[in-house]
């Protein structure tokens, strides 16, 4: 009896594993499409995996290890049918910025790999804990304008950092400006290798042309194959062109990365930033592709799936991963129907490492730089920044600030700047919310903004004021000052009706300010009236004891009822006279 009960419990838990659930509903007609899509996807996974590993400051082989393990883990624990995970161009600079400062002066590759693996494990822990705590909303901490600025800065950072490699020389610098100066000096000193420059620049041109005119052709694969062929035929390795060389043979062993205690703090800081960017990428990509396939986005399950992928990579000499919109799009166009596509890609890469590790021996380093540079161009969103300039200058300034944070302070500090700017922008909008006066417009129901309808009707002795934010400690004094200014107008109003529908909260600080304000207005013969105040907020006001000063009869269900009551008591008639001076809109809202 107990055994059957335990078996049922085990089967129930297994059915909750996304990969098991997907396998149980797999359709036979998907098999051929998934197999073919897996082959097509592999042609992109191999060169990108190697290129993004080097972008992260790690050996190229670790990119392949990472790709294999993350694809297999996500196939089991990831909820999306077709999202493709792997090394990512947006994470590469963040990994390098975290790992490389901790590597010894000699640049020990084994220590770099251990640090990268531990970083992946830390990212996994953060993602899995966030999933358990249902913190998927954290992805919203980066607003669209700051994300555009961050990605533009990241694209420029990647581009400048890869230019020396593209032309066949190296630059030692730890900042964007330092790398740019070193690149210019290297060019001036004649350090560029003509053969390397020809391979790198030709690779970029070929990828861009194929993506533009033959989008169904695997541009990266074609470029890589041609680069290997040209390098082999012309023996470019003897002409100063750096080559990848033979990859280690076989599958990576299970490895618990060994690090120093002093490494934990810097790694944890980098892991938080990487987890945040990875989460934002994952949620946005999952939403985009779920909309096409009719799937539901499960944010917390996605975090768990990406966390499992990072954990698997970290335990097998890999580094942090994220979802990839470009690789997922390739899989989708190739006909992928399930995560079997990723499994096929992982198995093919593993077979290549076992059976043909020398396949990419003659792949030139400038070709990998070309892969990274073309990927960085897809990160940039210049039209998005221009659109912000045209539509909302305040958001454009946020975009520029995030861009400068990355460009001048580095990618890790840049993500912190982006998050801080997003949070501060929310606070700014609450601190200085939009507020205006309302009037009656002939032919339109309700009461409308006098900025939009400056000739709207007014009632003598009545002002309708709308404050578009919860009333809290940060903006209570702004509200008080504006209401006091309206009360001091000439002629003096007898009622100030607050159209309070946007007020979703009143905290204790604001309650004290309201009490003092109401007493001051009453002493001056002006009544503070509230209309459309939400019931939960009204109950808070009563709990604060504000009805001792604010007359309970001065709360109305709608603005219309408040206005009709005022007219009935005073006999006032609508008149299209000039309205009182409008309050200044907050900065950036014009």
UniProtKB/TrEMBL annotation:
It is found in: Membrane. InterPro entries: SLC26A/SulP_dom, SLC26A/SulP_fam, STAS_dom, STAS_dom_sf. It is a multi-pass membrane protein. Residues 452-566 form the STAS domain. Residues 571-590 are annotated as: Disordered. Gene3D superfamilies: STAS domain (3.30.750.24). The chain crosses the membrane at residues 30-50, 56-77, 89-107, 113-137, 149-167, 187-210, 217-234, 264-283, 340-360, 366-389, 396-421. The keyword Mitochondrion does not apply. Its main location: membrane. Pfam families: STAS (PF01740), Sulfate_transp (PF00916). Keywords: Membrane, Transmembrane, Transmembrane helix. Residues 576-590 have a biased composition (Pro residues). PANTHER family: SULFATE TRANSPORTER. This is Sulfate permease. It comes from Streptomyces racemochromogenes.
């Amino acid at each position: 009896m107990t055994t059957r009960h335990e078996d049922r419990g085990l089967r129930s838990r297994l059915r909750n594993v996304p990969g098991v659930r997907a396998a149980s509903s797999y359709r036979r007609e998907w098999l051929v499409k998934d197999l073919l899509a897996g082959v097509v996807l592999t042609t992109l996974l191999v060169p990108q995996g190697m290129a993004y590993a080097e972008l992260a400051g790690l050996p190229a082989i670790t990119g392949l290890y990472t790709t294999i393990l993350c694809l297999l883990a996500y196939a089991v624990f990831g909820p999306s049918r077709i999202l493709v995970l792997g090394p990512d161009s947006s994470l590469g600079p963040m990994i390098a910025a975290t790992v490389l400062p901790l590597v010894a002066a000699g640049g020990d590759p084994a220590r770099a790999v251990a640090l990268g693996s531990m970083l992946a494990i830390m990212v996994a822990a953060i993602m899995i804990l966030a999933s358990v705590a249902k913190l998927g909303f954290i992805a919203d901490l980066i607003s669209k304008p700051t994300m555009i600025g961050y990605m533009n800065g990241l694209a420029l950072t990647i581009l400048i950092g890869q230019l020396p490699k593209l032309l066949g020389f190296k630059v030692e610098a730890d900042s964007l400006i330092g790398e740019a100066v070193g690149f210019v000096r290297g060019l001036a000193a004649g350090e560029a290798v003509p053969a390397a420059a020809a391979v790198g620049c030709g690779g970029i041109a070929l990828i861009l042309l194929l993506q533009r005119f033959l989008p169904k052709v695997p541009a990266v694969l074609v470029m890589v194959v041609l680069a290997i062929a040209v390098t082999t035929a012309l023996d470019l390795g003897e002409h100063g062109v750096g080559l990848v060389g033979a990859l280690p043979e076989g599958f990576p062993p299970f490895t618990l990365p060994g690090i120093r205690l002093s490494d934990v703090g810097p790694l944890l800081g980098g892991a938080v930033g990487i987890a945040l960017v990875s989460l934002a990428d994952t949620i946005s990509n999952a939403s985009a592709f779920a909309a096409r396939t009719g799937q539901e986005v499960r944010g917390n399950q996605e975090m768990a799936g990406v966390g499992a992928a990072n954990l698997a990579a970290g335990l097998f000499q890999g580094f942090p991963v994220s979802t990839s919109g470009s690789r997922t799009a390739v899989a989708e166009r190739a006909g992928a129907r399930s995560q079997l596509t990723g499994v096929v890609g992982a198995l093919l890469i593993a077979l290549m490492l076992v059976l043909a590790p020398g396949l990419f021996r003659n792949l030139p380093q400038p070709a990998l730089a070309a892969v990274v540079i073309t990927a960085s161009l897809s990160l940039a969103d210049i039209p998005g920044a221009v659109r912000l300039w045209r539509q909302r200058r305040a958001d454009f300034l946020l975009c520029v600030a995030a861009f400068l944070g990355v460009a001048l302070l580095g990618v890790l500090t840049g993500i912190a700047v982006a998050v801080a700017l997003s949070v501060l922008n929310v606070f700014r909008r609450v601190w200085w919310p939009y507020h205006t006066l309302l009037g009656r417009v002939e032919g339109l129901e309700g009461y409308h903004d006098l900025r939009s309808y400056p000739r709207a009707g007014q009632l003598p002795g009545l002002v309708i004021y709308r404050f578009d934010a919860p009333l809290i400690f940060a903006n209570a004094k702004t509200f008080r000052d504006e209401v006091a200014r309206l009360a001091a107008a000439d002629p003096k109003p007898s009622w100030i009706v607050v159209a309070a529908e946007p007020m979703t909260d009143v905290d204790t600080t604001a309650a004290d300010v309201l009490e003092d304000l109401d007493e001051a207005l009453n002493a001056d013969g002006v009544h503070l009236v509230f209309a459309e105040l939400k019931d939960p907020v009204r109950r808070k006001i009563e709990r604060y004891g504000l009805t001792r000063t604010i007359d309970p009869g001065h709360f109305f269900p709608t603005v219309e009822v408040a206005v009709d009551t005022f007219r009935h008591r005073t006999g006032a008639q609508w008149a299209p006279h000039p309205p009182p001076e409008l309050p200044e809109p907050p900065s950036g809202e014009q």
